[in-house]
Amino acid sequence: MITNTELEYKGDLYPTKIVSFEHEVDSISFHTDNSVILKVTVLRDSLIRFRFTTKGYFSNDFSYAVDKNHSHGYNHLEISEVADYYQIKTSKVKCRIQKNDMRLSIFDLEDTIILEDELGFHWEESYEYGGNIVKMSKASKDGECFYGLGDKATQMNLKGKRLENFATDQYAFQKDQEPLYKVVPFYIGLQNKQSYGIFFDNTFRTYFDFCHERRNVTSFWAEGGEMNYYFIYGPEMQDVVTTYTHLTGKPELPPLWALGYHQCKWSYYPESNLKEVAAKFRELKIPCDALYLDIDYMEGFRCFTWNKEYFPDPKKMVAELAEDGFKTVVIIDPGIKIDKEYSIYKEALEKDYFCKRADGPYMKGKVWPGECNFPDYTNPVVREWWAGLFKELISDIGVKGVWNDMNEPAVMEVPNKTFPMDVRHDYDGNPCSHRKAHNIYGTQMARATYHGVKRFAYPKRPFVITRSAYAGAQRYTSSWTGDNVATWEHLWIANIQVQRMSISGMGFTGSDIGGFAEQPSGELYARWIQLGVFHPFCRTHSSGDHGDQEPWAFDEEVINITRKFVNLRYQLLPYLYTMFWQYIEEGIPMLKPLVYYDQEDIQTHYRNDEFVFGNQILVCPILEPNSLGRRMYIPRGQWYNYWSNEKVKGGKEIWVDTKFDQIPIFVKAGAIIPKYPVQQYVGELEFDELTLDIYYKEGKEKSVVYEDAQDGYDYKKGRYSFLSFKTTGKENELIIQLHKEGKYDTNYSKYKINLIGLPFKVKTIEIDNVEVSFDKNTLEKEGYLIVDKEFTALHIIGE
């Protein structure tokens, strides 16, 4: 037994004094006399990476999260030295590293502190596993707020919370339960009207403490790996989120149908049941673009097989559904049934593609098929093999999308619900245990699935959805928030989760509308659909164990409400598609919590419910039963009630009356909202006019509309239409200017312009400085006029 030695208990260790540094292009490395190295890399003037090692050298620099296809660059980099510290200065910030203990502070150019170390970097030797438990603590000022961290079932503002990141199958999770399915170790700090971001790129189990243990200290730590984090300076939250999204990557455009309404259940079978569901949607005229098949479509839950008793001719069935506008999406899980007669199992076994335990045997665990082995998706050879398995599903049968589930990875009948920590992974040539690979396993499965679906769907675009994800997964897949519950509390949780995911880089997210577990009342389902149509991914999903959850499982009133709001989503598809375009082009989140929308208004800092859908539509769901109204906060500016067209002044909390078939929706004054006619599925109708709802504002406002062929890749060759509208409202005049970019010519030839809130009667209309005649009676009674889409300037002049 060792006693009274350093090895018995070391406790926390810290860097000592800096003894040397070297500067190479965009990186500066600082060395201490106890072999700690801090490497500071300036990627942009507002994006700085801090990477520590305690070994005297760095391991291979590898990240699944960072998008290697995105380039960076800075404008200014200056290094200087004074008595106590080194300073790195860019055109946006100054970073000072203390010579005596390597603690660092970051300032803006006016020397206002943005972020400073408390204890700074420290570590604890991990003798059980080897390596270190790496830790970082930062000083936090009074009034500082924290946001982000992806899939968390808690308040929008994380101040006072302690959270854990370890991808976990949490069936029927509760409010504040930790951890959940996704891992996004990125947060946004807001203090003194300045925002900054921290992305802790470490795939081990990580923790974040936002002034929970100590009032003025924020800390984050990991059970292994490096202290490797990125600092992002705003000062606007919008800048932080955009920079983070560029760093970890953005998706390509989905096909437009993927933004329609989807219907799912565990499970629709046999084929006759699925076709009955499809027929009922068309009979009730509730638009729907996709139907999902859960695990029961397979033969004994074996991936890439079909139960021929339930689905005797899948190709014929998929084709017949497609004739009526339905795209078929199927589930694929990671567990491969141990069955020597099963060709996929045999091939993976022969090629040694399964994960192994530390002592050599294959990792074995129980999931739906029974005992399974699991492919190592961190091996690029295995990912390529997995991608090739989708040929029959996509190319031959005609399936349009794939749904990855159970990929945390989830394992049944074991205490920790997942792989043992000694399981080995390739990690793209950086061999490691499951401690390091666990949080990225689901993302690498989704990545392999994406490449397979994309390969065989070409020239159409792929659609993939995943339950588990790590930062950067948005490059490959959409997501949903997992196995929620049909309760009012979960409606509240869904609202916050999707907002938080949106500002955490993963915008294409939604919840199981109505709740997966248990059975919603008609009122709860109606209120959930009213929220769900404003989420980027919109799908009803439920466990068949708890009853039916199609819209017609409820009464006529709920059916009508469902139809009304799904119709509204289909009308708003060009607006939603434009939101998506701005997300992939500029890293702008599709849903904007109020604090993101206006961080300088302190009233937004603790708001949970309201959010801005796109740039110009304010949504506030009804989250309690028996409510025909609610108080809500209207952001600063002028807004129109969507239902009544009444204009209200923002910057205050107001009571809003609603009916059961409404929720509070407001449109920003000056906005131009594009609308399609209602379709039962994307592409059903050819139409000759695009509706533009124009909300009058005294002053200027800009709106944009993006369109393309709605699928395929021609948009990458410039075949898209990007319309920039600028409205200028005066006391007696409204001017609408239009600029078009792109080579795509839309099918419609006219705009139907709805004028809302116009404070004067129209006397004259000029198009491109030429006065035109118009139906004054129609304009005054119906509020709209028809104009040719080729105009560049429209002047509406009052009497």
From TrEMBL:
Residues 251-579 form the Glycoside hydrolase family 31 TIM barrel domain. SUPFAM superfamilies: (Trans)glycosidases, Galactose mutarotase-like, Glycosyl hydrolase domain. Residues 689-757 form the DUF5110 domain. It comes from the Bacteria. Keywords: Glycosidase, Hydrolase. Transmembrane segments: none annotated. CDD domains: GH31_glucosidase_II_MalA, GH31_N. Residues 38-209 form the Glycoside hydrolase family 31 N-terminal domain. The keyword Hydrolase applies. The keyword Transferase does not apply. Belongs to the glycosyl hydrolase 31 family. This is DUF4968 domain-containing protein.
